[in-house]
Amino acid sequence: MRELVLICPEQRAEALSDALIEAGALSVSVEDADSDTDAEQALFGEPGHEPDVQAWQRNSVVALLPDGLDPAQLLEYVRSAGIADYGEGQWAVREVPDTDWVRLTQAQFQPIQIGQRIWIVPSWHRDSPDVPPISGQDGQDGGKLHIELDPGLAFGTGSHPTTHLCLQWLEHNIQGGESLLDYGCGSGILAIAARLLGAGDSWAVDIDEQAVQSTRYNAEVNGAQVLAMLPDDLSEGQFQVVVANILSNPLKVLAPMLSTRVAPGGHLVLSGVLERQAQEVAQAYAPWLDMAVWQAMDGWVCLHGRRA
Fold this sequence. Notes:
Layout: E1 2-9, H1 13-22, E2 27-32, E3 58-65, H2 71-80, E4 91-95, H3 101-107, E5 112-114, E6 118-121, E7 145-148, H4 161-173, E8 180-183, H5 189-196, E9 202-205, H6 209-221, E10 227-229, E11 239-245, H7 248-253, H8 255-260, E12 262-274, H9 278-285, E13 292-297, E14 300-306
Parallel strand pairs: 6-7, 8-9, 8-11, 9-10, 11-12
Antiparallel strand pairs: 1-3, 1-4, 2-3, 5-6, 12-14, 13-14
Helix pairs in contact: 4-5
């Protein structure tokens, strides 16, 4: 396989990418053409939201070519579409070595230890000697817990600091038998971990049907009884632990609902919040609970509050 490499300014990057796909490219990636130089730029946006600027000042647009496709065909299509006219010496073709993409992808996801007890283990590392054996799954004996979880479409593989923080809170605070609601469950990792740590009846809710299905699958794989559903299917009731790892803006909007779902004496655990957003999110919950930073990691925080 080969790649066609073109340089273009910010305002043409999106149109050029679309044109290359329309002309037959298998995929297109856009990178900073000045990466690793003094002119390198960073694009920032709040997690879960696109940055205001969609491309760099100078972009390297790389199109993956199927076998038999002449790069000249793509260049002619780009020219006829009025996007750009690339002359000789203004583009390049490079070979792409054959790669076992499945193995390469799997190599990027290694077992992750969280706290003292929890290990997130992709299925292809199930029998890895680097992972300590399971020494208890009843949540009471302090043994090692394995959560088998493969990367998928739903958020929550254990690698993000916000997931780490929530899992650490659960490890430190689940006593056994607590009812739990995981709101915005993604892959279901938090509800599954809580059950393996000894929590009682556990519900997992997400607005994305794919996340609900992912949670059900992951719960079954791990032998954890978790009821996963869409928000409209969640019945009335309160929970001793409510955990939500989403983002600051949705958390503020959900403040009345999440707060009233916490049973008297129960806990509310929030993450997906940057350190600079912590006070603002805590203020949104102030009418119901006094929220404070429990722990911080890599610029993110976990907020905790207890209902009187």
